[in-house]
Amino acid sequence: MRFPEDIQDSVEYDVVIVGAGPAGSTAARYAAMNGMRALLIEKRQDIGTPVRCGEGIAKTWLDKMGIPPNPEWIANEVKGAKIISPDGHVVRLTEKMAGNEVGYVVKRELFDKELVKMAIKEGVEVMVKTSAIGLLRDENGEVSGIRARSMGKEFDVHAKIVIGADGFESMVGSWAGINTRLGLSDINTCYQYHLVGIDMDPNFNEFYVGSDAPGGYVWVFVKGKDEANVGIGLQASQLKNKGDVKRCLNAFIAKHPHLAKGKPIEEVAGAVSVCAPIDRTVADHVMLVGDSARLIDPMTGGGIINAIISGKIAGKVAAEAVKKGDCSEIFLMKYDEEWREELEDRLLRNFIAKEKLVELSDDIFNKIIHALEGYEIEKITTLDILRAVQERYPEVIEELEDLL
Asked: Which of 59, 88, 137, 392 makes the best surface tag, with the fewest CB within 10 Å?
């Protein structure tokens, strides 16, 4: 382990990764697995906190990413999700159909630490309470690492590649000239309680759509038989006054007795990007992963799996670039192309759906859920769903025409 106080003026690595969330720790792990000397830095003193997340994650992707399930960081295992209309009708989605946020509800503070432990076991060095404050550039103006600060001390970390995993507020991309700017309609502002003493089915997460959450939705990720993360995400363009997000969540909880009986043991606020895929996620000697690359699902606001997928690809491509002695943007576009092949179609499709769903009235949401109520959605196709809606409410198909 490298201690900042032991560093005189500078250190040297093949790859430096800024941010120790799931994207950063995975990128570091795969870079090290492929022979790189990798340094992972985290600005906070405690990896995994504060938790700004509903903490839902699909099981299948964990297996694909080589992350064995561990009871220590699994809070609950669910069978699926309930989508609930403004008037209270329900359609159930099996785990398979419910997206990348349904399967396990995890303890993020422990899950994130587990990913960092996996990186350390591959040889990654880690520094906490260490921030990147700028990029280093050589005599030719090429990025050659980062300037870091820890406990009031500044030093240089020289590296052939910098991987930005510094989240929603990422500075690495901005410093490198990668456009990650967002408009208000591309940001969901969120507020969440960890409630204890609630009354609900521990086998299903819940998602509420409609005007209770303008431009977003309310989620309930069940962490046990009587506790859950209950949160709301509202499109920033819909907000009028400071505190609107918390007020909307409080009003929603008050309307639902099974949640209103709960007591909060934690509150957290934050924001997520819900934009279309950005134009590029690389520059010479620089790559962006996870939230910093805007790889959040625009429909759900979930990003854990996308972060891990992008981190794995970035770590492998970074190692290949260093070995070949070519860390140019042109070569690093291999990373950009690979994550797009894996994720872009779904992200773009869900962005288009999100843009349309923002426009729908409570009446339309009610009719869609009414039409599907009673289905156990696992095997039926999109065409089956549309036929069900058209049969009961043919006028709704006209509302969805642009989306289809």
From this structure: 88
Per-residue confidence (pLDDT) for residue 3, from 0 to 100: 60
Is the residue at 246 inside a domain?
yes
Give the model's pLDDT for residue 299.
84
Domain limits at 363? 356-399
- CB of 167 closer than 8 Å to CB of 80: no
In 228-283, which ranges are continuous DSSP H helix? 244-255, 257-260
Question: Is the preceding peptide bond at 50 cis, omega within 30 degrees of 0?
Answer: yes
* Verdict on whether the full-model pTM lies above 0.70: yes
Structure confidence at residue 401 (pLDDT): 64
DSSP 200: -
Q: In degrees rounded to 5, what are phi and psi of residue 356?
A: -75, -40
Q: Are residues 156 and 287 in the same domain?
A: yes
So what's the pLDDT on residue 276?
94
Closest CA to 52 of 349, 304, 316: 304
State how far the Cα of 107 lies from the Cα of 72, in Å rounded to an integer: 8
The span from the first CA to the last CA of the chain, in angstroms, equals: 53
In a domain, 404, yes or no: no
Check if the beta carbon of residue 193 is closer than 8 Å to that of residue 266.
Answer: yes
Query: Which CATH number do you get for residue 19?
Result: 3.50.50.60
Residues 340 and 294 in one domain: yes
State which of 257, 273, 289 marks the end of a domain: 273
Residue indicated by tokens 């690389």? 282
pLDDT beneath 50, residues of the chain? 379-380
DSSP three-state, residue 124: coil
Q: Please tell me what DSSP assigns to residue 341.
A: I
Quick: pLDDT tens for 89-122: 888 887 776 566 778 999 999 999 999 999 999 9
User: For residue 74, which phi and psi values (nearest 5 degrees)?
Assistant: -100, 115
Tell me the per-residue pLDDT of 243-294, one tens digit each, with 9 for 90 and over: 899 999 999 999 999 999 999 999 999 999 999 999 999 999 999 999 999 9
Say what the alpha-carbon torsion angle 66, 340, 356, 248 is, to the nearest 10 degrees. Answer: 50
pLDDT of residue 386: 63
User: Residue 131: helix, strand or coil by DSSP?
Assistant: strand
Angle, nearest 10°, between helix axes 304-324 and 329-339?
A: 150
Residue with tokens 């709301």: 232
d(CA 180, CA 332): 18
Residues 144 and 267 in one domain: no
